[in-house]
Design goal:
This protein is 19% helix and 27% strand. By secondary structure, it is of the alpha+beta class.
Amino acid sequence: MKYEEVDGICAFSFNLFGGKPVKARVLTRNGGISLTPWNSLNLGGTVGDEPQHVAENKNRVMQAYRLDLEGVFDVWQVHSADWVYATNHRRVNEPHQRADIIITDKPGLTLMMRFADCVPLFVYDPINHASGMAHAGWQGTLKNVAGMLVKAMKEKFASQPESLLAGIGPAICMEHYPVGVETFAQFKELPGCAEESAVSTSNGSHHLDLKKINELQFRLAGVNTVENSSMCTACQEELWFSHRRDKGRTGRFGAFIQLDTVMK
């Protein structure tokens, strides 16, 4: 991934999307106006931050990237593997749909999600000019949210998995992600997890590598081109909010993807 700063907004972009008619960014926690413990570019509206701060942070992001403030579609993230096809923006007073996958083929429509340890997933179909993104916590990962994202792209746009480009953004690393015995046992049974060292037990503590598991699920779904971030949200406090590190008292960093208009 490549770091950039645009009008004070700090973010990372995926190398594999470079030169493609799609704009995808993972925003860091820096560049906003929120106060501690949400400092500073918090985009989470349900974590205790002042609503006017969240609104101003979003406004700064949209201005920096020349995005239409009224052209955003987001969802209420519920740790599912359910998907929504977005055709238009979500109006200000319109209730959020509950889902953790959004797909679209509408240029200019900005898909946006929020994170604080869970895995940001992105896909772009250069053949059909369609895109999608997903939120993958352990529950969504157990439900194969990456594979469901690919399935949704196939069903809606006739995307061929081998043509998709997939990006996996910063998320919590294995070292900082211990889980209980029952959760660990479920992941240990998932195809490829044990063989790919995506699960680990050390000194009686069980750990998951959520990024590696999601990459594995992308590949099992037929995606050949995957860029996986090496950054950990818990390790790099200067860049990322982390629910685990900060014991729930923290903000949410944003991520978005938008298709460019392509001349037919």
